[in-house]
């Protein structure tokens, strides 16, 4: 698969968020000590590693949303 292509049927509600999500993916992978393939092909990565990255991204996004909601209600 060529770099930048995605076979997922999921689509972003805010397409401009793609760069931020990619950055978050690399940050989480680095924190976990997981090397993301430079060619963009994840086929040789362990499912456990890709799942760990996705799980941590989800936790971080939920945390960010909770903080934003808490800020809205405290005003």
TrEMBL record:
One Pfam family from the record: SASP
The entry's keywords: DNA-binding
One of the GO BP terms on file: DNA topological change
Annotated TM spans: none
PROSITE patterns linked to this entry: SASP_1
Keyword DNA-binding: yes
Highest taxon of the lineage: Bacteria
A molecular function GO annotation: double-stranded DNA binding
Function: SASP are bound to spore DNA. They are double-stranded DNA-binding proteins that cause DNA to change to an a-like conformation. They protect the DNA backbone from chemical and enzymatic cleavage and are thus involved in dormant spore's high resistance to UV light.
Homology family: Belongs to the alpha/beta-type SASP family.
Protein name as annotated: Spore protein
